[in-house]
Amino acid sequence: MTERFVAYFRVSTQKQGRSGLGLEAQKQAVEHFVGSKGKVLTSFTDIESGKKNDRPQLQAAIACCKVQGATLLIAKLDRLTRNVAFVFTLRDSGVNFLCCDMPEANTLTIGILATMAQHEREMIADRTRKALAEKKKRGFVLGTPANLTEEAKRKGTLHSQLNAQADPNNRRAGAFARKLRDFGYSWAEIARQLNASGFNTRKGGSFQIVQVQRVVQLVNASEEINEE
């Protein structure tokens, strides 16, 4: 039986919506994923911030899925994981969903990722506010390159290197793996969970114990830099 899909896309700004920037890539991902195994009945596109929960086109897409008995199809998982409330709104809708870049993802998977993503965003925002406030107290003119110390430059360089070495999938994998480690999973068990959830290494292979330990170390190292 041919599977029926309702596609949902999201872009962040009106400019992106008009230009198609980002949207075409999402459409291509959906077309490639569906291929000959199913049919996209229709699609819905929201143009707004990822922090918002009240996405009218998403609600329309969910309603359409219920009426048509279709599966909600999203091109990229990170379009879902920016707000915990949004993830659980989707869960409670009762609609089946799939993500093209992680087809094995389930409510538990995206719930953990959403929690980690929101926590990281809140921590970064809080650290940034405190750092800027402290700079102002000391009389620094923000945005002036001359104010950067050698230590700050060193940390900035190291941080850039870490970012360059890790793609978004590895960051998500590292956060997910560390959470499972906190729950008491062995490295071997975590590797199996990552592979079953659709994660791949940077080279496209399956996770082994060594790769799992590396992505967790990468996440830890990134946080240590931010905390210094």
Layout of strands and helices, then pairs:
Blueprint: E1 3-11, H1 14-19, H2 23-34, E2 38-47, H3 56-68, E3 71-74, H4 84-92, E4 97-99, H5 107-137, H6 150-165, H7 168-182, H8 187-196, H9 209-227
Helix pairs in contact: 4-5, 5-7, 6-9, 7-8, 7-9, 8-9
Please tell me about this protein's structure:
It is a single chain. The protein has 228 residues and is α/β, with parallel strands linked by helices. 57% of the residues lie in helices and 11% in strands. It has nine helices and four strands, in the order E-H-H-E-H-E-H-E-H-H-H-H-H. It has helices at 14-19, 23-34, 56-68, 84-92, 107-137, 150-165, 168-182, 187-196, 209-227, and strands at 3-11, 38-47, 71-74, 97-99. A four-stranded parallel β-sheet has the order 2-1-3-4, sandwiched between helices. Helix 4 (84-92) links the parallel strand 3 (71-74) and strand 4 (97-99). Helix 8 (187-196) packs across helix 9 (209-227). The longest helix is centred in the middle third of the chain and has 31 residues, at 107-137. The N and C termini lie far apart (56 Å).
